[in-house]
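Below is one such record:
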Amino acid sequence: MANLLAIETSSDALSVAILNEIKVYSFHEIKPKQHTEDLLGIIEDLLSAAHIKLSSLDAIGVSCGPGSFTGIRLACSVAQGLAYGLNIPGIKISSLEVLSEGIFKKFKPKQIVVLLDAHREKLFMGIFSYSEEGLISSKIKTIDQVEFDSNYYNSETYFITNASKVLVSKIKEVSMNIYNDYPHSLDLLNLVSKKFEIGDFLSSEELLPNYLVEQENWETY
């Protein structure tokens, strides 16, 4: 077992979780524009509750975006600083995958689509395919809102979105499985734990934000 810290501040939710080998401690609260002031204090409080010191951490996981520019930058900067100072590895996860993980744990759908408002009539889009055991593949990209076509999906597709009522109406043409959640550090911690077990680590220098600006995308298989 390991001592792990997971930091998720890509949305209005300030969410932090710690695993002290066998027990999980977490904080999750909607705190718009308070992340910078509160994050380090919350990490300190959770470490105290878990009865471990910073020096006892084995790795740090961070939700790297897309999402709030300020929130992503804050989380990655803190994770980078701690990982470098403690000489421990880092693990980063897309915030869209964190959202998808929460819905997968509850309902076990085969497909989850995340559509988040990226402003200027654009969407952050994540398409996640699952087996009963977990994630099979993912594709994350930025699209224009008008590009979204509900005809590619069906009633078994689960959607997570904070976008416009117009978009939600389009989704309802094919599926009523629609949720508007905040990414949660417990889901991030679960994903971080899986990567830790297989040694999928990054150096502190690689814990960089993924802002997912226009025309950038990445896929995993």
